[in-house]
Amino acid sequence: MDLTRLPAAWLRDNCGCSLCRDPRNGQKLFHITDLPQELAIGDVRERAGGASFEVEWVPDGHRSVYALEWLTESAPSGDGRSGDGRTEDGKQLWRAAALDGRLPEADWEAYLAEPAERIRVLESVQRLGFALLRGVPCRERQVLAVAETFGYVRETNYGSLFDVRVEADPNNLAFTGAAITPHTDNPYRDPVPTLQLLHCLTNAATGGDSGLVDGFAAAALLRDEDPAAYEVLTRTLVPFRFDDARSALRADRPLIDVDPLGRIREVRFNNRSIGTLRLSAEELDLFYAAYRRFGALLLRDDLRLDFRLAPGDCLIFDNTRLLHARTAFAESGERHLQGCYADLDGLASTLEVLRREQPLDELAALFEGAGAEQYLGEEITQAQHMLQAAALAEAAGAGASLVAAALLHDVGHFHGPVSGADLMASDGTDNRHSHTGAERLARWFGPEVTEPVRLHVAAKRYLCAVEPDYFGKLSEASVHTLRVQGGPMSSAEVRAFEDEDFGADAVRLRRWDEAAKRVDARTPDFAHFRPLLAGLLR
Question: What's the DSSP call for residue 380?
Fold first, then answer.
């Protein structure tokens, strides 16, 4: 990759060194005006066998290191289509037939107990616009507990929670038995609540079935069928209003909102809340024709997904995208839903953290499972050995990445076509666990972690070549594996190893590796190192 072709200011702005970013939180320590006016990329050299590149900057001599994987993923593409996933580009648009009988749903207890299930549910809300939790306890205010599993409750003039049931003096048609056509909630707010939850406590009334329409799919359909109407609805500001004895709310927003690249980002549609538009007669004629066209489209049977909420069902949906509706119901029958609002940014944050925690859960399971077995030819378990190595690195004041490498250096023993047992056989076969482990860890960590892991076997061969007394420090099992792994390095191999960017780190790791075999050693458990690993995840 030719780094000199990249924009210098962009590349320098993304420097991740400790002088440019606080290592505790990753936040930038410089203002854009702190960078030299005539900033330019100077010398560039490969590191770690091409896994990363070091840049020396002109004129200030600052040095930055960039991982090849990051450069490949982040380098300017020219299409400008990056985004936060909130527009139509980040969604799976749907019509009713695509989801009929295949609702994105999950059991409440499984959702609470299994991170993978929570990820699946929250991804459905992001991708499809909704998910349905079944078996949520039918008790008052439980909907708030559901919202708090992924974010924060948005309090409004309705309170933190609202009851959807027949009221004697309703301030909203939702609190009657009337049919409600597809709409989004609270369009008169800025910002609008981006998520809505509805938890069914009782549904014994005749009627009262729920419906959902994908507003993004409907808007895209309007764009295809009537581009002129679509364009009118994206540019016309609509005054949404809500007034009662305690509230006077207003927000002027288009029915279809797009981002600067023209992608659908938000739909606000609520016929009950549109105030008086004050436009020219010509503009009003165009708007009302387009409004009618969109309104008719939203009532199409093929767009509306109908289902009935049963007690214990909790619907979570994107209020900036999906329109919800219900059929009329007999007010003599009992129907009681409790609802609340939350926001998509909280859900997205929780989802990202859950995804980030997945590799840590996987590693923790490795330490508790396969790692609890006997370490190859030694008197301790594999997990005890790796924890001892990490504890020694930590006690020596090593940096976070090297402590992580010490902790994870032998994960390659648990994967790959050649087992540890094959390695320890009398005619042993090298399982290349250093390379297997580094490749596995590269999914989550940068070369500062993976390269010392990849080189830690080579470091043993190196030390046996350059330190005459080092061989005598090896355990019987380590002597055996040294023979299988190629024995002490040749002079040429020594020179090549000394040119490795992370060779010195690998040597330090190797010394802790050899020392981490004490039966009586007391070490922290995996949970102690988990925050450190979390801070290093890419």
Answer: S
Structure-block tokens of residue 432: 């290349």
Contact 449, 434 (CB under 8 A): no
* Whether 494 contacts 466, CB under 8 Å: yes
Q: For position 174, what pLDDT does the model report?
A: 67
- Where in 48-184 does DSSP place strands (E)? 52-58, 63-67, 105-107, 130-134, 162-164, 180-183
Cα-based torsion angle of the residue sequence 351, 352, 355, 360 in order, rounded to the nearest 10 degrees? -120
Do 292 and 284 meet the contact criterion of CB atoms below 8 Å apart? Answer: no
Query: Which tens digit of pLDDT belongs to each residue from 145-175?
Result: 999 999 999 999 999 999 998 765 666 666 6
Q: 242-284: per-residue pLDDT in tens?
A: 998 899 999 999 999 999 999 999 999 999 999 999 999 999 9
Per the structure block, which two tokens stand in for 479?
Answer: 């002597």
Determine the angle formed by the axes of helices 503-515 and 382-395, rounding to 10 degrees.
120
> How far from 72 is each of 53, 63, 232, 389, 508, CA to CA, in Å?
12, 20, 40, 33, 31
Render 23-47 in DSSP notation, one character per residue: TTT--B-S-GGGS-TT-EEEEEEEE
Residues shown for the chain: 538
Residue-wise pLDDT for 70-126, tens only, equals 898 888 876 656 678 899 999 999 999 999 888 999 999 999 999 999 999 999 999
Contacts of 397 (CB under 8 A, 6+ apart): none
Helix/strand/coil for 97:
helix
Distances 281 to 256, 285, 513 between C-alpha atoms, Å: 21, 6, 81
User: Is the Cα torsion angle 316, 318, 321, 323 positive or negative in sign?
Assistant: positive
CA atoms within 13 A on the CB side of 195: 29
- Kindly tell me if the per-residue pLDDT of 498 is higher than 50: yes
pTM, to two decimals: 0.80
Those residues whose C-beta lies under 8 Å from the C-beta of residue 261, and which sit 6 or more positions away, are: 80, 81, 87
Q: Where on the phi/psi map is residue 59: left (φ > 0), alpha (ψ -120 to 50), or beta?
A: alpha
* Spatial separation of the C-alpha atoms in residues 262 and 267, rounded to whole Å: 14
Sign of the alpha-carbon dihedral angle for 498, 500, 504, 506: negative
CB-based burial label for 113 (10 Å; 0-12, 13-18, 19+): exposed
Distance in angstroms between the alpha carbons of the first and the last residue of the chain: 21
Token representation of residue 350: 């929780």
Six-digit token string for 169: 């003096």
